[in-house]
Amino acid sequence: MRDFHGNGDFKIGQNIDIQFPDDQFQAIRNTNLIRHYVQCDSRLSRLFLYLRMLFDALEIRNSKYGLLSSYHILLLTIHFLQSEQALFPWPVLPVLCKTHSNLVGAHIPIDDVVSTLDSAQGPVGAFLFVKDYRGSGTVDKRRLFFAIWTHFVVGFRHAHTF
Question: What is the per-residue pLDDT across 16-72, written as a single tens digit (0 to 9) for each?
């Protein structure tokens, strides 16, 4: 039996989620964007894993039940690392669609995006923009994690106190 979302429940207790790509191949483009961000700064992956474990411990990560997904957590982490207000004087990550639109964006032919993702060496030019971006490369992972914690968790609590 299938519901209107395309989810199928099998008699053995397993289920499957079927999704059809849109005509712009947004999921593939998002994968390309995330891959570039991960190559920008190695701390992104570690911070994402810390936050995912924290959200698991708080029991707020489970997109099947309307909670946050791993992708949501990853986007929150990237957004925070781009934030000038949270990370003074420089953000850790650039906004790639503004600074390096030749590497990411809807204007790049999907065949080029797929070729980039298939290449074993990573995106063409990925290491060039890492060298010319002057992000906050000296802040250690623990300090960044604490900054994320205070920005999202503590700030969220204070914003919703009545």
Answer: 777 777 777 888 999 999 999 998 888 899 999 999 999 999 899 999 899 999 999
Q: Which residues contact 144 (CB under 8 A, 6 or more apart)?
A: 43, 47, 81, 87, 92
Say which amino acid occupies 50: Y
Task: Give the CA-trace dihedral at 39, 40, 46, 52, to 10 degrees.
Answer: -90
State both tokens at 154: 């503590």
Q: For the CA atoms of the chain, what is the radius of gyration?
A: 18
Question: Taking phi first (over 0 means left), then psi (-120 to 50 degrees means alpha), and beta for anything else, what does residue 16 get?
Answer: beta
Model pTM above 0.85: no
Q: How far apart are CA 114 and CA 21, in angstroms?
A: 14
| Alpha carbon distances (Å) from 110 to 24, 25, 38, 106, 107 | 8, 7, 20, 8, 9
- Residue 120 has a CB neighbour count (10 Å cut-off) of 4
Supply 14's token pair: 């397993």
